[in-house]
Design goal:
This protein is of the alpha/beta class. The chain folds into two domains: 303 residues, FAD/NAD(P)-binding domain (3-Layer(bba) Sandwich); 145 residues, Succinate dehydrogenase/fumarate reductase flavoprotein, catalytic domain (Flavocytochrome C3, Chain A, domain 1). Helices cover 35% and strands 22% of the residues. The N terminus is likely disordered. This is Flavocytochrome c.
Length: 478
């Protein structure tokens, strides 16, 4: 059966046939690995580490020339209940509140069992990362779209800490990692997943496994055809994903019967408008910034859901707004955001000024309106009652310290909530809800965890939690 499936796959290839010895592939490759992981971001590497912890032989296949995926260029924030950090700041939190916010802000359509699995395992997965050598700053904050101050900040910038920590742990455990391997086909034998086929620099390769395949290949945000197919209104937007986020492995699983869920739900974040090059993340910390339109007025509370913010910005005639912070917020934003801002300013895509009036002139909004907007906002912060309903906390800043900064706040595609349907054991399910034997998935390639709107910081938490689960399940052949 396996030989017939491979021959059938070859028949579908372009006429310029690949030269190889089929018998040699079958004999040499069939028992080479216990587990194959597709994708070397946080989810894939977490799966590889957990699988290798049992003594299993593990192969990781990564499409890009380098490991890291979207994790490496992400903000790096990880959301979890963590009372040891939260309680000294006067922050009350619980798994129950975390579940409620994740589920309700997601439109109350996510799979409750998946949400529960995420919430119940986020903290122990945070501790697991730390046990492997990952370091976080000793504080939490409310990330844009997180709706509660539970976002942890890695010491190393962006996602570097996760990839360094997890890849080192994987290599220490004997995991083999191959880059430039684009998996676009799954090999099935007697109703069970037995391996994958991948395009490589040296032609088409086949990799076989004894126990299971874990798909952790990320989103399809950089595939304009899939975006247009599932969310046509967003098809013309830019994306902040890597160019390798194109969904081939996800669609290969769908081709052999894996179900897709929530594909129409795609999340956007503030970024540069089409035609511009420099994204500045003044929006990261919701306590630091305000959004204003081209009249210099606020038009939505900045802690609204990410989907509401997306729709509000895209409904503006210009389809972009401006993010504004002050000097204190700029210092809090971190060295990488500061670097982004300076580079963008040199390119004419961010601005700073010694006064709100001067900033208004630079970004082309009425100075009197912007001055009034900032004064009203600051009054609301002091009174702890914002006119647009933004939650005011002890961390919320007045915007009063020069220099004042502004950047573009268009919408860029950030995250695809939809993907492969899984259960709480990270098993891929078919359209009847039954597990596909030997196929597991974790991270942004999956759907059903977040519903229509993912909370800020939940993406990395999901990747680690479900990546670990998928690695364990694959080894145990659940």
């Amino acid at each position: 059966m396996l030989r017939r499936n491979i021959l059938g796959s070859l028949a579908a290839l372009p006429s310029m046939a690949y030269a190889f010895d089929l018998k040699k592939i079958l004999d040499a490759g069939r028992s080479s690995y216990d587990v194959i992981v597709v994708g070397a971001g946080a989810a894939g590497l977490s799966a590889a580490v957990e699988a290798a912890n049992t003594g299993a032989s593990v192969l990781v296949l990564e499409k890009a020339p380098d490991i890291g995926g979207n994790t490496l260029i992400s903000g790096g924030f990880y959301s979890s209940v963590d009372r040891k950090l939260q309680e000294p700041l006067g922050i009350n939190d619980s798994e129950e509140l975390f579940f409620e916010q994740t589920y309700e802000y997601g439109g109350s359509i996510a799979d409750k069992k998946l949400v529960e699995h995420l919430v119940k395992n986020a903290e122990n997965s945070l501790q697991w990362l730390e046990s492997l050598g990952m370091h976080f700053q000793p504080r939490v904050f409310e990330l844009y779209g997180a709706h509660w101050p539970r976002s942890h900040i890695p010491v190393l910038p962006l996602g570097q800490g996760y990839i360094r920590t997890l890849s080192s742990a994987a290599l220490d455990r004997g995991v083999e990692i191959k880059t430039r391997c684009s998996v676009d086909e799954l090999i099935v034998e007697s109703g069970r997943i037995k391996g994958v086929a991948a395009a490589t620099d040296n032609g088409r390769k086949f990799y076989f496994c004894r126990k299971g395949v874990v798909l952790a290949s990320g989103s399809f945000a950089a595939n304009s055809q899939l975006v247009e197919r599932f969310a046509p209104k967003l098809a013309k937007l830019t994306t902040n994903n890597t160019p390798y986020s194109t969904g081939e492995a996800m669609m290969a699983a769908n081709k052999i019967g894996a179900d897709l869920v929530d594909m129409e739900f795609i999340q956007c974040l503030p970024g540069c408008p089409p035609g511009k090059k420099h994204r500045v993340r003044f929006h990261n910390d919701v306590s630091n910034f305000v959004l204003v339109n081209h009249e210099g007025k606020r038009f939505i509370n900045e802690d609204a859901s990410r989907d509401d913010l997306r729709d509000a910005v895209l409904s503006l005639p210009e389809r972009y707004a401006f993010s504004i912070i002050d000097g204190q917020g700029f210092r809090k934003s971190g060295i990488l955001v500061q670097k982004e801002a300076v580079i963008a300013r040199e390119a004419g895509e961010a601005w700073n000024a010694s006064s709100i009036e001067e900033l208004a002139v630079k970004i082309g909004v009425p100075p009197s309106n912007l001055v009034s907007t900032i004064q009203s906002y600051n009054d609301g912060v002091l009174k702890k009652q914002d006119s647009l309903g933004k939650k005011i906390t002890p961390l919320t800043l007045c915007l009063k310290e020069p220099p004042f900064w502004a950047c573009f706040a268009s919408m860029t595609i950030h995250y695809t909530e939809g993907g492969l349907r899984i259960d709480e054991k990270a098993r891929c399910l078919d359209k009847a809800g039954k597990p596909i034997i030997g196929l597991y998935a974790a991270g942004a390639v999956t759907g059903g965890v977040h519903g229509r709107n993912r909370l800020g910081g939940n993406g990395l938490a999901e990747a680690i939690v479900f990546g670990r689960t998928a690695g364990k399940s694959a080894v145990e052949r659940i």
